[in-house]
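My current task is to audit a protein record that another person submitted. My question to you is simply how this chain folds and whether the tokens agree. This is what I was given:
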Amino acid sequence: MLDPLSPKLLKARELEKAKQEKERSKLPQSGGLAPGSIVDTLPPATSPQYEQIGIIRDPKTMAAALDPTPRARERWQRRMVIREIRGRWRMSKQVKLARTERSHLSKSEFIKTSVKKLYPLANQIAGKPLSEAMVQMRFSKKKAAQDVLRHLEYARDQAIVMRGMGLGKVQAQAQAQPQPQQVEGEKVVDGQEAEKGREPEQEEERLVVEDKKGKKRVVTDRTAMYVDEAWVGRGSYGFSPDFRARGNVNELRLPYTSISVVLKEEATRIRQARDRETKRQKKKVWVPLPDRPITAQRQYPLW
């Protein structure tokens, strides 16, 4: 057995440490990426070109996360191409809606509550605008309402970042911002004078639509989000000891439940209301006694 303080072992440790320092010196000073994940011809971090080029990531290194099963992906793409060819490249109604309307599904973590207690909260927020649903959960007396509120905030942020939902008013405000002063030779044109030649701003759009439950709602922003669906799911049970008299111990089953919400934009609700109205108008009028030709009658009475 070698002595940990022997000269040979200490020298070997010093050589290994020097080797590690040499390898570490080859890494870029900023970013801390592994070798191969950045182009060797990158300029130094102090040069002005570094900010323009940025970090170029190696697709082979990122393929483990972005494309973990390439063969399965290729088979799926082949099936999709075959299906489109068989359908003569015609899109179904579901595909058209998926390409023109935005929606986001978000499932929460398991909450320490039962289905019986969480189900009424899911029914309470279903069909309401997202802002109104969050207000309902904020002032609710139910203990699980605070967990539902946090999940609604998380689902809202996810929908904005991942799907680009709810940005209609923000984009309109960005376009309506006054332009800075423009210098034309020696004459300075203020923003107010430049706005005189513009057309007057359009009034806010207000539409009265009917939701799935038959309730009338006023829509002022087509990109505003609302809770289209909300449901709960039962999770696994936890256990806790319940100490009783005479040394008896019972097991308490602690339920865990999750809540899932589907967020959509008000444009979807407007389209659904229009489709229901069109279907209602196309429906034929019901009559109790329709006009039919009289058959199986004799020329003379039988008496």
Observations:
- The mean pLDDT is 82.
- The longest strand covers residues 225-234.
